[in-house]
Amino acid sequence: MRRFSFFLVTLICLASCGPAADSSFNTTPVAVKSTETSPASSGPNLEPFPDAFKAAQALGRGLNLGDALEAPKEGAWGVIIEPGYFELIKKAGFDSVRIPIRWEAHAAPDAPYTIDPPFFVRVDQLIYAALEQDLVVILDFHNYPELMANPQGHQERYLALWQQIAGYYKNYPSTLLFELLNEPNDQLDAAQWNALSGKALNLVRQSNPSRNVILGGANLNGYDQLEKLELPQDDQHLIVTFHYYNPFEFTHQGADWVAGMDAHLGTSWEASQAEKAAISAHFDQVADWAKTHDRPILLGEFGAYSEADMDSRVRWTSFVARQAEKHGFAWAYWEFCSKFGIYDPDAEVWREPLLKALVPWPG
Which in 66, 149, 286, 307 has the greatest CB count within 10 A? Predict the structure, then answer.
């Protein structure tokens, strides 16, 4: 994957943001340089990506920084994102990071649903640190269970949050991407999600007309839900995403947040012809859809829980990553340093078998 460089953009943290959260990050705005040829036009939305296909190419191989900012409070699920992580990720051969964020946990419950200014500062700290390492960044709107359970009751708040997010980041470089919502589910079915995502995208486009935006289908962003996804017309800056955890009994064996998964402890994945064929068929299905609809694809999440044996995890992870690359999909592994993680934050070392499965080393 080519090294992507940025436009000369000074990121300014608004004075109204208030004091920064306690962190060892340097919150000074950074000048982000570019060696790309700039368009003739000028303004905050100078766009080095002519379309979403170039943006997806720049995403390349990515990592999710999971179990951190999508928790009710950062650290509640055991992960606090450290400043040195971004340099580690870049040096290991990754091109991008996806940052799952629980915006609704940091916003007022009543109109105008104001997002806490210090939380914007914390998110900025991560963005700056990633951009300093020349990583492309996805801001993923993650974990809004009330919206899933009651879409109509929370539609106004969800849209108000996006209006604030889009407005706040409208002057940021195009290497910052938005993802409208992670894994719509429960009562937020395909019909309701199609209507709501269209409204959200229209709001984003008011302030970010050429920002690349990521959108997936309902029912947990399943690979088989794309046929139900309604895409807006004439939007050249839209990347479509899906998530992949099949076979679920293998990837989530022993998961304590999913009922009944202890019964599947000991399930292996041997890379048999039948096992590989099943995955290949699913990826072929996504590729066919993408070709028909002329959209680039991001495999936004895939991974196997740490209760599975390491050899099986390595086989499965490598096969899924190579299938994505075979079809030209960008991908983002779930995740960096928690229950699916490829990095051990206590020992401060990579879990090399998994790292090599994702980013094959020479030799």
Answer: 66
Compute the average pLDDT of residues 293-313.
98
2 lies in some domain: no
Give the CATH number, domain containing residue 283. Answer: 3.20.20.80
Alpha-carbon torsion, ordered 225, 230, 235, 237, to 10 deg: -20
What domain count does the chain have? 1
Choosing from 183, 275, 307, 335, the catalytic residue is 183
Determine phi and psi for 321, rounding to 5 degrees.
-60, -45
Structural domain boundaries, residue 298:
9-358
156 is catalytic: no
Whether the bond between 335 and the residue before it is cis, its omega within 30 degrees of 0, is: yes
Tens-place pLDDT, residues 64-85: 999 999 999 999 999 999 989 9
**Token output for 359:** 């980013």
Question: Is residue 348 annotated as a catalytic residue, yes or no?
Answer: no
3-class SS of residue 297: strand
* 182-236 tens-digit pLDDT: 999 999 999 999 999 999 999 999 999 999 999 999 999 999 999 999 998 878 9
* Residue 363 resides in a domain: no
Instruction: Say if 329 falls within a structural domain.
Output: yes
pLDDT at 41 over 70: no
3 part of a folded domain: no
- The one catalytic residue in 47, 301, 307, 335 is 301
Say what the pTM is: 0.88
